[in-house]
Design a protein that fits this description.
Blueprint lengths: L21 E5 L4 E5 L4 E5 L7 E3 L10 E6 L4 E6 L6 E6 L3 E8 L14 E20 L2 H4 L3 E6 L2 E6 L3 E6 L4 E3 L2 E9 L3 E9 L10 H19 L9 H13 L1 E2 L4 E2 L22 E2 H14 L2 H14 L13 E2 L10 E2 L13 E2 L10 H16 L5 H17 L18 H21 L5 H18 L1 E2 L4 E2 L14 H4 L8 H14 E2 L2 E2 L17 E2 H13 L3 H12 L11 E2 L5 E2 L5 H18 L1
Antiparallel strand pairs: 1-2, 2-3, 3-4, 5-9, 6-7, 7-8, 8-9, 9-14, 9-15, 10-11, 11-12, 12-15, 13-14, 16-17, 18-19, 20-21, 22-23, 24-25, 26-27, 27-28
Helix pairs in contact: 3-14, 4-5, 4-6, 4-14, 6-8, 7-8, 7-9, 8-9, 12-13, 12-14, 13-14
């Protein structure tokens, strides 16, 4: 093990970059995390949920990485090519300035391009002279599979039992053990290219000359700019909103229309804690909220693709006792068994590293409200749903009317047993209420008397049993005095008027107990045990819900200040993880769809309120 100035696993362990010191590139099938030091330390190929090729972010020694940086002491800065997902890392040395342009081609026009998984790293010296070094050290199957390396003509071939990668470069490379190294010097105007391709019996190795790399760079830039041009957002926070939209697009799996919750697994919600989860799957809730955010900006294609995913890959009724699972694989599969990779130490020593997610078997009633609300908005803002889709909606609503009052694990996926969570009742109400609206507006057949009776029963139950006289607030679950940030959705879902005295009293209680300088905790695990060990940071989606709640309560000065403060917690590229720690560090899987979609919604609604 390499010597470090601090103990392995400590926050100062120099083998690990902080989570926030990363940018994201992708090709709508998978992504790579690129550190501000030029190292790719997370990459799964050929898809989001495939085993990793580079995973040094989870184990600096065993995970594998692709280093590419100045070979001398240098300052670094990282930014995106404007309005794209092409990432540029610059190295400022004593003798010159160089940069690495990282991207994964998204080119629908080239025959066979959709099946080629390629990562291109284009190195350019822009001033003076800069020496560079490269280390390509893949570790297949989360570092568990052995591999060989050999030179075949102009290629370096990395081969394991289940996967092979071909590396080509315009500079000389040397195989050393299981890895490949390169050292080279560039003068102003010169460039070098590295291209890493997944290869198999169908996809054969292909070189990447300077001209081809330049062509693919241009094609990728053009693709992202064409896509972003669809945005209708012209508000105050255009740069942050568009970066969030570009990030959500990177989290889509184009072959099926699926949207993953995050592209990583097991990045810790707290260093040294056990709250490490695999988020590389399709949460019905998260994807439905993402559809809402993208529709708000005018991106109807992604909403249409997700509706196609639902229709093609998810059949209501195949999820056991409930018609839907809370999450699915990106191909629609239902089995997502969870297990630990004990050979990996975890980010900064934060084990365990998990693959799969046992929460797939939980009952979370709120997903029906999120889903049917997104279907309602898709029908309203994009195009009318089909008769078959309406039949599926009716099936879901009928089930919700019969099962809304049972306890569940709730939106936060607690592992401490089922409860009668208020948020679950709220979103069941949303499911039925939006379906009624859709039926009435379109004149679609529905059992409206039964639906209205069930909707009203849900409303009365929440108002009667979800309210605590002692706290003068709505509470996390029936019979409790515990607060929960998910209550912030009550006015956002149009369940209660944002200026209703009961809601304003609840908002004040939430501010007093769960808000810390604009940052919002989900709940207090000390008074509401969730069956998990350790504390957590503030939850960023809740912080943006807080901005929206203030906005709708006409407390615009507070809302704007809270929003601007939240923007300061983004990383240098405008990206967010799931949570924010005590000293402002990003915690949890990165980047997180939940956070970015809620930023879009908060910005849109605050902009509109400010006029």
């Amino acid at each position: 093990m390499a010597e470090t100035p601090f103990p392995a696993g400590s926050p100062q362990d120099s083998r690990y970059l902080p989570i926030c010191e990363h940018g994201l590139i992708g090709d709508l099938r998978s992504v790579a995390l690129v550190g501000s030091n030029g190292t790719i330390d997370w990459y799964c190929s050929p898809s989001f949920d495939a085993p990793s090729v580079f995973a040094a972010i989870l184990d600096a020694e065993r995970g594998g990485r692709f280093e590419l940086a100045a070979a001398v002491r240098a300052r670094t800065k990282q930014f995106y090519f404007p309005d794209t997902n092409v990432l540029i890392t610059r190295f400022f040395t004593e003798d010159g300035v160089g940069e690495v342009q990282d991207f994964m081609p998204v080119d629908a026009e080239t025959p066979g391009a959709a099946h080629r998984h390629r990562l291109i790293r284009r190195v350019v010296c822009v001033r003076g002279t800069v020496p560079f070094r490269a280390l390509i050290a893949p570790r297949f199957d989360y570092g568990a599979a052995a591999h060989t390396v050999r030179t075949v003509g102009d290629f370096v071939l990395f081969e394991s039992a289940g996967q092979s990668l071909a590396l080509t470069a315009t500079v000389a490379m040397e195989c050393v053990g299981r890895d490949t190294r390169a050292e080279f010097k560039l003068s102003e105007g010169e460039c070098a290219v590295f291209a890493l391709d997944q290869v198999d019996d169908v996809i054969t190795p292909r070189g990447c000359a300077h001209a081809e790399a330049e062509h693919q760079l241009k094609a990728t830039v053009d693709y992202w700019r064409r896509w972003l041009h669809q945005s209708r957002y012209r508000g105050r926070w255009r740069e942050m909103v568009h970066r969030s939209a570009l990030t959500l697009k990177l989290l889509t799996y184009e072959p099926t229309g699926a949207i993953v919750a995050a592209p990583t697994t097991s990045l810790p919600e707290r260093l040294g804690g056990g709250r490490n989860w695999d988020y590389r799957y399709v949460w019905v809730r998260d994807a439905a909220f993402a559809v809402y955010a993208l529709l708000r900006l005018g991106f109807t294609g992604e909403a249409e693709a997700f509706m196609r995913f639902l229709t093609t890959h998810i059949s209501p009724g195949c999820g056991g006792s409930a018609p839907l699972q809370i999450m699915y694989g990106i191909d629609g599969r239902t089995e997502l068994p969870e297990h630990e990779l004990r050979h990996l130490e975890g980010h900064l020593g934060s084990a365990p590293v998990r693959v799969g997610n046992a929460a797939a078997d939980q009952l979370q009633l709120d997903i029906y409200g999120a889903l049917i609300d997104s279907i309602y908005l898709y029908d309203k803002w994009a195009e009318p749903i089909s008769s078959g889709q309406w039949d599926d909606v009716c099936h879901l609503v009928t089930w919700v009317c019969e099962h809304w009052d049972q306890p569940d694990e709730g939106v936060w996926e607690t592992r401490g047993g089922r409860r009668t969570f208020l948020y679950s009742r709220l979103m069941c109400w949303v499911a039925v209420e939006r379906a009624i609206r859709l039926a009435v507006r379109r004149g679609l057949p529905a059992d409206l008397p039964h639906w209205r009776q069930s909707r009203d029963a849900m409303y009365r139950r929440i108002m009667d049993r979800g309210w605590s006289e002692r706290r003068s607030a709505f509470v996390q679950y029936e019979g409790a005095d515990v607060l929960d940030a998910s209550l912030l959705m009550m006015p956002l879902a149009k369940f209660i008027a944002p200026t209703d005295p009961k809601w304003l009293s609840t908002l004040d209680a939430l501010i007093e107990e769960l808000v810390s300088d604009s940052l919002v905790y989900r709940y207090d695990p000390a008074v509401s045990p969730d069956g998990l060990v350790g504390d957590e940071g503030t939850f960023s989606i809740c912080s943006f819900w807080y901005v929206e709640a203030l906005t709708r309560a006409c407390r615009l000065d507070e809302a704007r200040l809270a929003f601007e403060k939240m923007l300061t917690y983004a990383n240098h590229l405008g990206l967010y993880a799931e949570e924010i720690g005590l000293t402002g560090e990003q915690q949890g899987n990165f980047p997180q769809a939940f956070t970015h979609l809620s930023l879009i919604s908060a910005a849109y609604n605050l902009d509109r309120a400010l006029g």
